[in-house]
Write a structure and sequence with these properties.
Elements lengths: L1 H33 L1 E7 L3 H15 L7 E5 L4 H9 L2 E5 L9 H4 L24 E4 L4 E3 L4 H8 L7 E5 L19 E8 L3 H12 L11 H12 L8 E4 L16 E3 L17 H15 L19
Parallel strand pairs: 1-2, 1-4, 2-3, 6-8
Antiparallel strand pairs: 4-7, 5-9, 6-7
């Protein structure tokens, strides 16, 4: 009888010991994940809010733990409610004014790009150790956890991981420091938030120094990255992100982790010129609309039974 009673007691003791040994590791993992966040910003028209909601839903399909932050100049109660349903926090920040000449340079129909310097506020999210900045015109096909784990290994308080423009591969190797001076796409970046970097951003922008801004803030940021992250000879804190995390054309579509509809060819407008995974994006839009309880209708509504890849 004593032996029969001893067996369950031993089992319970073993389970308690097992849980005690695992708890610190689980707590450590949770702490790391809470120090890493996804960040979006909303500064475009209502159509971009449609993309934002879809993108956040797409992220939440793979990652339910890490915080998601949405930066905007103004958030209505309805927007906050919709984002809360997707477990995303909304933070209001003041606009960041672009130089007056940028209004002419960005071109007709692209005036929203003059507001893209608002991106400066991403570096002010110092409550997080790492922020993965993303844009609303993206589809996430697989988890982005590799980017976080890779970035943890990168030294430097102002380090940055970023993908190139177009379909250019990492010439020095994937996830390796790069000395390429220009040609970085600022639509997806892993950054270390830094008040110092944000201040330098603001100072350079207000200095009166003239720079190209036909693509909004991107060229300015490329110059700033070179000045601050590649200034020492033989040393770079700018890490090259593989193209599969920022796929913008047919050459990388088969292996894409992140599909990015750059320029004016947005998925909610039919994704003219790059229709890979458009049906997948539409499927995510429908699911996000149902989950958030809001009506989101894209300009083009593909047949949900259509093939996922249209050449």
């Amino acid at each position: 009888m004593a032996m029969k009673l001893l067996v369950p007691v031993c089992i319970l003791a073993s389970l308690h010991l097992c849980c005690s040994l695992r708890s610190p590791k689980v707590a450590e993992d949770d702490a790391v994940e809470q120090s890493e966040a996804y960040a979006f910003m909303l500064y475009g028209a209502e159509s971009h809010r449609l993309g934002l909601t879809t993108a956040i839903y797409s992220i939440r399909e793979f990652d339910q733990k890490r915080p998601i932050v949405v930066l905007t100049t103004h958030a209505s109660p309805e927007m906050r409610e919709d984002m809360a349903k997707l477990k995303a926090d909304v933070i209001e920040r003041p606009p960041v004014k672009s130089p007056a000449y940028c209004t002419k340079e960005v071109g007709e129909g692209k005036q929203r790009l003059t507001n893209s310097f608002f991106k400066m506020h991403v570096w002010n999210l110092t409550q997080f150790r790492t922020v993965l900045y993303l844009e609303s015109d993206m589809l996430f096909r697989r988890p982005l956890t590799e980017l976080f784990s890779r970035f943890r290994e990168v030294p430097g308080d102002d380090a940055l991981m970023i993908a190139g423009q177009g379909d250019r591969p990492c010439s020095e190797g994937d996830f390796r420091p790069s000395f390429r001076r220009r040609g970085w796409n600022t639509g997806i970046m892993a950054i270390r938030p830094s008040k110092h970097f944000a201040e330098r951003y603001a100072q350079l922008l207000a200095s009166g120094w003239k720079f190209p801004c036909f693509g909004g803030s991107q060229e300015f940021e490329n110059i700033l990255f070179h000045e601050t992250l590649q200034s020492q000879k033989g040393q770079s804190h700018l890490i090259c992100m593989p193209i599969k995390f920022n796929c913008k054309g047919n050459s990388c579509a088969q292996d894409a982790v992140v599909v990015h509809w750059t320029g004016e060819r947005k998925p909610w407008d039919g994704a003219a010129g790059f229709r890979y995974y458009l049906a997948d994006w539409e499927k995510q839009r429908r699911a996000a609309s149902q989950h958030a309880g809001i009506k989101m209708v894209a300009a083009e509504d593909p047949d949900p039974e259509a093939k996922h890849r249209t050449k």
